Amino acid sequence: MSDENSYVPPKIWQWNTENGGNWASINRPISGPTHDKVLAKGKHPFQLYSLATPNGVKVTIMFEELLALGIKEAEYDAFLIDISSGDQFGSGFVEVNPNSKIPALIDQSNEQSIRLFESGSILFHLAEKFNAFLPTAEKRTECMSWLFWQMGSAPYLGGGFGHFYAYAPEKIEYCIDRFSMEVKRQLDVLDKHLEDNDYMCGDAYTIADIAIWPWYGALALNRLYDAAEFLDLKSYKNVMRWAENIDQRPAVKRGVMVNKTWGELSTQLHERHDARDFDERTQDKLTEE
Ligand SMILES: N[C@@H](CCC(=O)N[C@@H](CS)C(=O)NCC(=O)O)C(=O)O
What we know:
This protein is α+β, with helices and mostly antiparallel strands. It has a domain of 118 residues: Glutathione S-transferase Yfyf (Class Pi), Chain A, domain 2 (Up-down Bundle), CATH 1.20.1050. The protein contains 10 helices and 4 strands; from the N terminus they run E-H-E-H-E-E-H-H-H-H-H-H-H-H. Strands 2-1-3-4 form a 4-stranded mixed sheet, covered by helices on one side. Helix 1 links the parallel strand 1 and strand 2. The mean pLDDT is 95. It binds glutathione (GSH). Glutathione binds next to loops.
C-alpha cells in the first residue's frame, strides 16, 4: 500500500458531508425523515414502494410470479421511490420502513393493514400467505437457509464489492481485492450447490431463487457493476446455467421492468398499477404521447 494512505482516524468520527462518493448527497449518519411526504396509495391489496435495484426486483418478480400462477389476490400497485433524490427519507416512507431503504410494502388485504420492510421478510410473507414458492418439510428449512444466506451475503457483493469497484471516487486495491475474494468465494458456494440442484432448493423454483437471482444472477449476466469479466463469471458454469434459465421466465422479464428508471426506455415501467401497463405504459410509449 502506498504512503498516500496516511489517514489517521480522529478520536471521534465526524460527519463530513463532502465525503460520501456517489451517494454523498443522500447518505446520513442519522435515521428518520428529512421532509414531510404522504405516500400515494392505489386500490390493490398490496402497495409497493420501491426501485428496480436487486433488492427491489426480488419483490416485483415475486408479485409477477404469483400473478402468473393466477393468484389475483396478489395484485399490486408499485410506486417509484427515487433513492438518489432522497425519497426514502420522506415521512410517509419512513412510517413504512424506519430503516429508509427500498423495498417497502403495505399489505392492505386484511382489515388491519400490515407494513413490511426487508426484502427477505416481504418474500416470506407473500410465500406463506399464498402458499407458493416455499417448499414443505425439510426443503422449507433448506429454502429459508438460502434465503437468509442471501440476506447476509449480498451486502458483501453490493455494499462491499459493488461500492468499491463501481462507485467509490477512487479505486482502492485493498478494498477491491478484499471484496472480490469474498464474492468469488460466494460464487463458488453457489456453483458447487447448483452442480447437483437445478434450483437452490432442488428441482423447485422458490423464494430462495427469487432472492438470489437479482444479485448473483444479474452479476453472471453482466447486468451488475459490469463486472462479469473481472470476476470471471463464465467459469462458474452452474451459476451461469441457473442464471440463464431463470432469466427466461416471463414473470422475471416483467418483474425487472417495474420501478426501473434507467436503460432502454422500452424496459422502464416507472409505476405499475395494472398488468396492461407492461404493454401500454413503458417510458418509450409515454414519451410518444
Ligand atoms: N436488507 C435490505 C436492504 C435494502 C437496501 O439496501 N436498499 C437500498 C437499495 S438496493 C436502498 O434503499 N438504499 C437507499 C439508501 O441507502 O439510502 C433489504 O433486503 O430489503
